[in-house]
Amino acid sequence: MSLLEIRDLRLVFDGFEGRAHVLDGIDLSVATGEAVGIVGETGCGKSVLARSLLRLNPSPPARVTGGAIRFDGADILGMDQAALRRMRGRDIGMVFQDPVTYLNPVFTIGQQMAEVLRAHEPGLSRRALRARSVALLESVRLAEAEALLSRYPHELSGGMRQRVLIAQALAGNPRLLIADEPTTALDVTIQRQVLALIADLVRRLGLTLMLISHDLGVIGAVCRRIVVMYSGAIVEDAPAEALFRAPQHPYTRGLLAAIPDLNRPEHMPTSIPGSIPDLRHPPSGCRFHPRCPLAMPVCAREKPPLIPADAAQHLVACHAVAQSMAPAEFGLSGTPA
Ligand SMILES: Nc1ncnc2c1ncn2[C@@H]1O[C@H](COP(=O)(O)OP(=O)(O)OP(=O)(O)O)[C@@H](O)[C@H]1O
């Protein structure tokens, strides 16, 4: 049974310069205990998707135009404000990219931990708040947690600040943790430590994780399953090992070809030709078709469905891949361009 079910989710932003079709029919199921990575180029809608799960996209300009999101059976899109407040942090916790933005410079770490804890459990005594804060800071491997309570954010390093935010996200004992580019603002060594911490928390607390990054290396370090997004749609969804070994979608292949390989110095990284589409005027059919080396006439006409590729858990949305698997079954009229 899935903890999270997203069905045909569609979301637009209405702006002065027109309507941006940002989520174009997202289908995603996440089972309890899974660690799923969402990867894709900047602007493909990863953060908007994550914020949709907590209904955090500002509305207006954001508007959900179709689909459903269910968390443990509850209809998130139909929740009233009181139900949303209960759900946020308690069912689904979220960690954002930039720890500086989300910690208030004028309050101590202790005051900010207490504020989050009080929101979840209003009746906690001062002593209980202190004990819970220390336990949470220790759970994210922060040394001298007791002393940290009286420090201000600027007295902490970037990695420590991100750990404090992870501790805050865990304060409501969420079942699903969403981490949106949690290490992008950190330098490489600290990045590795924070990723190791997230992987460890997932194991220790039995958390379900949705990790968002533009970096396949970051996702591959933590997640067993990888979902690739392109321009508001999922183009491939596969076990990490299968995705790295045998990527199916031409966009995923392009992403992998762009990564330098230290074991093969002769391999020259290549970039995907063209640029990401303008979401106010997205290409018809498959949004990747103008950049795709395998594009066929059908690709400009019909959006390809997400279907099993070489294994049941390996899904891909590509007419060319579908045709190469079973041409008669799919009956596509397209011929290679
Ligand atoms: N508040 C907003 N108002 C208008 N458009 C928005 C808003 N938030 C996001 N968008 C648009 O939605 C699209 C997807 O943005 P999103 O932040 O989800 O991308 P992303 O894949 O997470 O990329 P990045 O890694 O750069 O954050 C972008 O075109 C962005 O301009």
Short description:
With 337 residues, this protein is an alpha/beta fold.
Description:
The protein has about 325 residues and is α/β, with parallel strands linked by helices. It has two domains: about 170 residues, Rossmann fold (3-Layer(aba) Sandwich), CATH 3.40.50.300; about 80 residues, P-loop containing nucleotide triphosphate hydrolases (Rossmann fold, 3-Layer(aba) Sandwich). Helices cover about 35% and strands about 25% of the residues. The strands form two sheets. It has an eight-stranded mixed beta sheet, sandwiched between helices. A four-stranded antiparallel beta sheet has the order 2-1-4-5, covered by helices on one side. Strand 9 and strand 10 form a beta hairpin. The protein binds adenosine-5'-triphosphate. Pfam families: ABC_tran, oligo_HPY. GO terms for molecular function: ATP binding; ATP hydrolysis activity. This is ABC transporter ATP-binding protein. It is found in: Cell inner membrane.
